[in-house]
């Protein structure tokens, strides 16, 4: 890389208005692009170390408000207005429509079942017997390993270690609780210290790789569907037959039949989620509130379950087994993102479970609305009316 192609940086203070301007001018010289709107922002670049490198400005996303939605959770209780950052027309209106149905049916019940964050090192031995015996030693010394790992964090707690043997390798999956943080970096540091202690104290000589990829960081996996990564959260509701017919112009028997067809289609396709569109609400809410956007790939996976009840009402539930959320750390402290978390009452200690319940309720609202729009024939017409730039 020659000096005239190197992106300008300051070794003294790289997060300044001046350095951002210098880089924009450099890019204009190299590409001819005038980054006028990117360079118009209200936040102080001094707050950005730890969030971004080579800062040039802000990409502004429109934020709309859906709701309110009545949530009857263990952590999220009451009515909430949901900030959604998106460029997709009809999205906010659709979620609001689903929330109206939820409200008229008494609200959505939300439950956080469990929550872990993982790091999964792989330990390598001379043969499979050594790997097996090492696994037994790890089980016997769990309390010491737990104590060592927790020396790196005041929040993270090692709860259990899962194990699998493959050839002469023993894969360990460390499962932590992480408070209000998503915790990927937290558990990485904790597991590194634990692995170094294991390597030094194991009676069986071993080498290790800090991530053997069974933590499936930023990747969907069936393992997470079964064993949870992030929050396993469920949002459920009984949709009243009368409300669905009046508001959505859909009969519950039609919805049950269409949902069965959709389940079969998702099964044939090998989809990570069998409902209409969990990723839409999750991504929009994540962007608005400063979540790690790459976690959408894990978080959108799940199951939409249904049952047509004897009285004609319709039970519907969303299970999200790997919803990775944070109300502390990362981008959650940035000004506009923190304001959106404030809208939800999710700033402060012990708010991550509350936020997880809100996300799950939002996904359920979106699925109700889109499923009914497809059945009633409103899907294309609503996008044609509201989702096109004319």
Question: Strands, helices and their partners?
Answer:
Layout: H1 17-31, E1 63-73, E2 77-85, H2 91-104, E3 108-119, E4 122-124, H3 128-140, H4 142-149, E5 157-166, E6 169-177, H5 184-201, E7 207-209, H6 222-227, E8 230-239, H7 241-248, H8 252-269, H9 278-289, H10 296-299, E9 303-308, E10 314-323, H11 335-343, H12 352-376, H13 379-386
Parallel strand pairs: 1-3
Antiparallel strand pairs: 1-2, 3-6, 3-8, 4-6, 4-7, 5-6, 8-10, 9-10
Helix pairs in contact: 2-7, 2-12, 4-5, 9-12
Describe the 3D structure:
The protein has 390 residues and is an alpha+beta fold. It folds into three domains: 12-60, no CATH class; 63-114 and 230-386, 3-hydroxy-3-methylglutaryl-coenzyme A Reductase, Chain A, domain 2 (Alpha-Beta Complex), CATH 3.90.770.10; 121-209, 2-Layer Sandwich (Alpha-Beta Plaits), CATH 3.30.70. Helices cover 41% and strands 21% of the residues. The chain has 13 helices and ten strands. The protein has helices at residues 17-31, 91-104, 128-140, 142-149, 184-201, 222-227, 241-248, 252-269, 278-289, 296-299, 335-343, 352-376, 379-386, and strands at 63-73, 77-85, 108-119, 122-124, 157-166, 169-177, 207-209, 230-239, 303-308, 314-323. Strands 1, 2, 3, 4, 5, 6, 7, 8, 9 and 10 form a ten-stranded mixed beta sheet that branches. A hairpin with a 2-residue loop joins strand 5 and strand 6 (169-177). Helix 2 (91-104) packs antiparallel against helix 7 (241-248), helix 2 (91-104) packs across helix 12 and helix 4 packs across helix 5. The longest helix is centred in the C-terminal third of the chain and has 25 residues, at 352-376. The radius of gyration is 24 Å and the shape is globular. It starts with 16 loop residues before the first helix and ends with a helix. The mean pLDDT is 94.
């Amino acid at each position: 890389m020659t000096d005239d192609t190197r992106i300008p940086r300051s070794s003294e203070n790289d997060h300044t208005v001046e350095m951002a301007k210098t880089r924009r001018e450099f890019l204009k010289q190299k590409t001819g692009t005038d980054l006028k709107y990117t360079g118009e922002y209200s936040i102080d670049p001094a707050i950005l170390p730890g969030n971004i490198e080579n800062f040039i400005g802000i990409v502004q996303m429109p934020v709309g408000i859906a709701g309110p939605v009545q949530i009857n959770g263990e952590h999220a209780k009451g009515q909430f207005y949901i900030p959604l950052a998106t460029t997709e027309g009809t999205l906010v209106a659709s979620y609001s429509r689903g929330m109206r149905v939820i409200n008229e049916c008494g609200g959505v019940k939300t439950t956080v079942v469990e929550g872990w964050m993982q790091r999964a090192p792989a330990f390598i031995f001379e043969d499979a017997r050594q790997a097996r015996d090492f696994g037994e030693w790890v089980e016997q010394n769990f309390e010491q390993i737990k104590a060592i790992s927790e020396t790196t964090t005041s929040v993270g707690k090692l709860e259990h270690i899962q194990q699998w043997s493959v050839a002469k390798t023993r894969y360990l999956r460390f499962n932590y609780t992480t408070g209000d943080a998503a915790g990927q970096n937290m558990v990485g540091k904790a597991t590194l210290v634990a692995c170094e202690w294991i390597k030094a104290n194991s009676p069986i000589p071993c080498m290790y790789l800090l991530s053997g990829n069974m933590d499936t960081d930023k990747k969907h996996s069936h393992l997470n569907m079964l064993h949870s990564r992030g929050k396993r959260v469920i949002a459920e509701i009984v949709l009243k037959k009368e409300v669905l017919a009046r508001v959505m112009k859909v009969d519950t028997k039609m919805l049950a039949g269409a949902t069965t067809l959709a389940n079969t289609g998702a099964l044939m396709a090998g989809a990570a989620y069998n409902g209409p569109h969990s990723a839409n609400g999750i991504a929009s809410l994540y962007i608005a509130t400063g979540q790690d956007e790459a976690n959408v790939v894990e978080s959108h996976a799940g199951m939409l379950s249904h049952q047509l009840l004897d009285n004609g009402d319709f039970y519907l539930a969303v299970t999200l087994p790997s919803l990775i959320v944070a109300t502390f750390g990362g981008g959650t402290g940035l000004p506009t993102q923190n304001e959106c978390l404030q809208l939800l009452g999710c700033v402060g200690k012990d708010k991550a479970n509350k936020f997880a319940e809100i996300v799950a309720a939002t996904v359920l609202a979106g699925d109700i609305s889109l499923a009914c729009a497809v059945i009633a024939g409103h899907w294309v017409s609503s996008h044609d009316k509201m989702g096109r730039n004319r």
